[in-house]
Amino acid sequence: MLILKTLRRCGPLHGYSIAKTIQQASEEVLQVEEGSLYPALQRILLKGWVTAEWAQTGTKRRLRVYSLTPEGREQLDQEISAYRRVSQAIERVIEPA
Amino acid sequence: MKWWAQTRRRLAVLFRRDSFDRDLEEEMRAHLELEAEENRRNGMAEGAARSAARKQFGNATLLRETSRATWRWRRWDELARDVRYALRTLRRSPGFAAVAIATMALCVAANIAVFTVIYKVVLRPVEYRDIGRLMDVHLIFTEQRRGTIPMVWSYPKYLELVRFNRSFDALAAFQDRDVTIGGIASPEELTGEIVSAQYFRMIGVQAQLGRVFVDEEDNPASSPVVLISDALWRSAFGGDPGVLGRAVRVNDAPMTVAGVMPPGFKGESGRAELWQPMGAYLRENPNPGRGGHNLQAIGLRKPGVSPRQADADVRQLVAQMERQIPSEPGSGNKWSGGARPLLEARVDPALRKSLWILQGATLCVLLIGCVNLANLMLGRGTARRRELAIRLALGTSRGALMRQMLVEPVLLALGGGAVGLFLAGWGLRLVASVIPTERGSSADLDYTRFVDPGTFRVELPFMILGLLLALATGILFGLLPAWQAARADIGEGLHCGTKAGGPRNIRLRNALVVTQMALALVLLAGADLMIRSFSALLATRVGADTRGIVTLSVQPSSADRVVRRAFFLELERRAAALPGVKAAAIANGLPAFGPDWGTELHVEGREDAVDTGDFRVSPGFFRLFRVPIVAGRAFDERDGPDSPRVVVISEAAARRFFPGQNPLGRHMEYPQMNDYQAEVVGVAGDVKFGPPRAKDRPVTYSSVLQSRIGGYLTVRAAGNPRALIGALHNLANRLDPEAPVYGIRTMDEIVAATTWRERLGAVLLGIMAALSLVLAAVGIYGVFSYAVAARTRDFGVRIALGATRGTILTMVVRECATLAGIALVLGLPTALALSRLLASQLFHVSAANPLSYATTAALLIAVAFLACVVPARRATRIDPMAALRSE
User: Fold this and answer.
1) Among the residues of B238-291, which ranges form H helices?
2) What CA–CA distance (Å, rounded) separates B528 from B533?
3) Is the pTM of this model over 0.80?
4) Which of B29, B356, B572, B798 has its CA 20 to 30 A from that of B74?
5) What are phi and psi of B709, to 5 degrees?
6) How far apart are the first and last CA of chain B?
7) Which residues pair with B134 in a beta bridge?
């Protein structure tokens, strides 16, 4: 969900920037091994929510850029609304009465 | 859809695995480099920057693996691994694999082959649309003396049936008869059907070229047309599509070809080559009488009417007809009617029964095979107990273990099934070769004409059935050890190692082997009875030497008696003069073949008539068939048309007509032949004019010189009789180019054809019994090998304590003998009880024939002994020291 959201907010990105963006956006709260991003990327590639393309950057390096597909957008909407429902529910439960 | 898109992406990766790996690698490296650059920019040293980046990234190798795993076909990968593993273990025990596959293959082959035959012969002998609704509609004639026989309809009665019945949507009448077709390259004598226009509509058969009959053609005033079979179209017209509209002559009447029927279609008679419409019947019989019963009828039952209701309806209708216009007033003979499903009417009840018996036998073979497989699998499970326990201990899930244990039997089943289907095809060819293509004797024509061995092939539905059968057996018997394995107690498994599975296991296996032997015994007993019965059939005395003889039928084109006589006499004379021919004769009947019917003959001064076979043969007949003249003389050329009538009678006839008297010089009366009397001049040995099962009849012979002439030309060859066929055909064609020549066969072929059903039964049941015996032997061998291996230590101790090898051998063999004994006690009564099913199929053999059971029991004991003696000898060679130390 985080990856999809990042791609929607910032447009096509490569793996490193996705990791950095998520870290910054969450204000370093979500500190995970950056590498675990890649298995996750493979999973959503397989699901068809993102596509990947090789792009040449200015610094003679080839980078793989991921962009969201229409299916990915749809999935993200679904996941966000599902997440909201759950978090609201949790909110209500832990709210002091 | 989603699933498909994913699969497509997966496949894309699968086929470009290398580039996928490179991409991933490069991507991760780039990530690390970017991270390191960032760190350097934040003021870290080169090395520290790199290692910090790596730390931040995590375990790159593991992540790569996980990434890759996303794209994998996880279940398939695991399955493929299990399959590879199973193949590897099977390759390591080729004996086990071979026995299992062979067992499975034999079981599948036997079942599929027999079931295909049953399907083609019993369940679907004809492929008509609505076959389930088609019925054979008939009259039933009860004559006081002869009993009840089904009869066909006369035209007026048929019309009433069509008008007044309430059970059928449609009815069709037909008749089959031999016709001569002329106006083609070489005229032929063949079976033609006259059918009403409804006929083709009802059975749902269309012409492949041209059209079938229309309703107007049921009218005698319509222009005469004819339909021809595919075979006739190809042989007589070379498959010319321009055949439509061609003029031919059928029984010398001009006709136009209106259509060609599809390949394989032979009509309801099962042998028709030519069809004429009902109009032809009415042209030949302008005023058909009520008593002229010569039309068969089939009906298409209305939906919602049961066969029983239709039967009752026809019976009622005929009763009504008889009340209005009695068929035979005051004769005491009764007429009734009925209907039965066409499928039932077209299958020989005896053949159906013997085929179902055979299917039962085949299922027995399957059962025996299954017992073998169960035994094999159990043994294998036990042998691998330790390995499995270790793997369980190392953390394999029980489910995974069970799946893996199942992969092996499934592979074996599929392999066995495939080999089995191949064998089934081969077996069907064997069966087809036993069924003669030209089945002749009048006795079995009615039913077996529908059996077409050309259709005996393993068709796709049967292939699937066969593989499913194999799979089901494989899984069923794979489950047993798999379940055992999954349930296994790790500690115990590790502990006891490869030692035997304990006494319970042995008892189970002993019970299985006893079952197997008992089943094999039942099959063997059945096969023994069938084979004895068949050899009794073959040993039936024909009373004539039928070897080295070829026979043919010919119909001279002229109906004139004088011309016909001259034709046949000339044919006989020239045939006898052909090189390679020892003798020739003309006769209207053939030994061992028939026609199998009798005439009621009288003898002077006695009232009672005797059912006698009355044949007209030329003087050379007795010499040609080597029929001995036991008294008096055979007739010869001097007994011509102008000399006194003479007759030669068989010994049975002499006993029957003139008991205790000298028949020579007495007279026989022929009421059908203008009441003439003939003097008995000779007595010949008994000859059976019919298949072995046919009734024995006294026989009388008249000379063709003094009565009608015609029928078969028979020729005794000096060498191979088949070599003469071409010359004889040419000879007949030279004498009368318009005369159709047909039925050219050797007497050996005819004799074989009269016993084909019995031969089929004996061959197939024999094969099944042999299979069961082999399988049982394998089973006994397997169980005893296992038992001996399991008791290695026991035997070792005994040998160490001074038991001689003889004692050990006796011990094992005695155990086997006990099992065989139990099997005999169980199997013999079962066999005896089941043999009653066979009783009706047996010829001159009692179903309770003690010799059969004794032979069978002896054979089984011998096989059991042979199968256990090998493992028993292995037991005697056990080295006590090695056996004791190994524990």
Assistant:
1) 278-284
2) 8
3) no
4) B29
5) -120, 145
6) 61
7) B300
Q: What pLDDT, on the 0 to 100 scale, is given for residue B587?
A: 92
Alpha carbon of A93: minimum distance to chain B alpha carbons (Å): 36
* Angle made by CA atoms B100, B102, B103, in degrees to the nearest 5: 65
* Beta bridge partner(s), residue B81: none
Helices and strands in chain A, H and E counts:
4, 3
Contact B453, B137 (CB under 8 A): no
Cα torsion through B418, B421, B422, B424, rounded to 10 = 160
Closest CA to B131 of B187, B204, B67, B68: B204
Cβ of residue A62 closer than 8 Å to a chain B Cβ:
yes
B583 three-state secondary structure: strand
Would you say B368 and B516 are in contact if contact means Cβ atoms under 8 Å apart?
yes
Q: What is the DSSP code string of B398-419? A: HHHHHHHHHHHHHHHHHHHHHH
Joined tokens for residue B854: 């004794």
Alpha-carbon distance B89 to nearest alpha carbon in chain A (angstroms)? 35
- Closest Cα in chain B to A59: B34
Question: CB–CB of B28 and A63 under 8 A?
Answer: no
Question: By three-state DSSP, how is residue B425 classified?
Answer: helix
**pLDDT for the residue numbered B489:** 63
Give every residue of chain B whose pLDDT is below 70, as ranges.
Answer: 1-2, 72-75, 144-147, 383, 436-451, 482, 484-505, 605, 607, 671-675, 886-887
Helix (H) or strand (E) holding B702: strand B699-703
Assign residue B345 a region: left if phi > 0, alpha if psi is -120 to 50, beta otherwise?
alpha
Residue B98 parent element (H or E): helix B94-118
Each residue of B333-387: pLDDT tens digit?
788 899 998 888 777 777 788 888 888 888 888 888 888 888 887 777 776 777 7
User: Which of B32, B34, B54, B68 is the best residue to mutate to test the A interface, defined by the most A CB atoms within 10 Å of its own CB?
Assistant: B34
Given this structure, which CATH class describes domain A2-94? mainly alpha
Q: How confident is the model at residue B260, as a pLDDT?
A: 94
Of B792, B815, B797, B803, which is closest to residue B874 (Cα–Cα)?
A: B792
Question: So where are chain A's domains?
Answer: 2-94
Task: Answer yes or no: do B56 and A48 touch at CB < 8 A.
Answer: no
Element (H, E) at B336: strand B334-341
Alpha-carbon Rg for chain A, nearest whole angstrom, is 16
Instruction: List residues of B whose CB lies inside 8 A of any A CB.
Output: 2, 5-6, 9-10, 23-24, 26-28, 30-31, 33-35, 56-60, 63-64, 66-71
Q: Which amino acid is at B214?
A: V
Give residue B212's identity as a one-letter amino acid code. Answer: V
Contacts of A78 in chain B (CB under 8 A): none
Q: What is the DSSP string of B544-574?
A: S--TTEEEEEE--S---HHHHHHHHHHHHHH
Q: Rounded distance, CA B77 to CA B70, Å?
A: 12
CA distance linking residue B245 with residue B215, whole number of Å: 19
Which residue, among B162, B768, B796, has the nearest Cα to B427 in the 3D structure? B768
Query: Which residues contact residue A50 at a Cβ distance below 8 angstroms, ignoring those fewer than 6 apart?
Result: A3, A4, A7, A41, A44, A66, A67, A68, A69, A72
Cα dihedral across residues B425, B426, B431, B437: positive or negative: positive
Separation CA B62–CA B70 (nearest Å): 13
Residue type, B452: D
Q: The tokens of B647 are what?
A: 């007759």
**Quick one: how far is CA B132 from the chain centroid?**
22
Strands B253-260 and B225-228: parallel
DSSP 3-state of B728: helix
Residue with tokens 């069923």: B476
Q: Quick check: B464 and B619 in contact, CB under 8 A?
A: no
Other beta carbons within 10 Å of B527: 26
Q: Which of B600, B594, B632 is nearest to B615 (CA)?
A: B594
